[in-house]
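User: Hi! I'm working on a homework problem where we have to compare a predicted structure to a textbook description. Could you give me the structure for the chain below?
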Amino acid sequence: MPSDALDRLLSDPYVPTAVYFPDSDCVEYVREDTICVYDRVDEFLTLVFDETRINLIGFKFKGFRNIFETHLRSAYHLNNDHFIEMIEVLTAVCTALGNELTSDKRRKDAYRAVKKLATKDNIKIYDLSALAA
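Assistant: Happy to help. Predicted structure tokens:
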């Protein structure tokens, strides 16, 4: 990368964005450009805290393609302008987990916290080209 492009990239303000990574089949969202501490909750969800390990600043959600194909594909006709609201993904996962989710307080609290973050930040996943096929 040319030096001027790198300087421009590093000087641009941080914009929190939910990103789908097809190679690892996960969606990650981090609202602040800071040191992150990851705390795995279950096979789907990892919480992201700031360096204090107190403030939730994001999450990583694994197995996104399967959740999308199983619970959401029929509701979407994806194109380059489309997005998925993260709250819909969380609702689908919570529904699929059912009693398994509600029987574990830590897990239930983690999903509740991510749902609150997704609602507050109005998190949407854009670049869905890897799922459009």
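For your comparison, note the following. The longest strand covers residues 56-62. The chain is about 40% helix and 20% strand. Good luck with the assignment!
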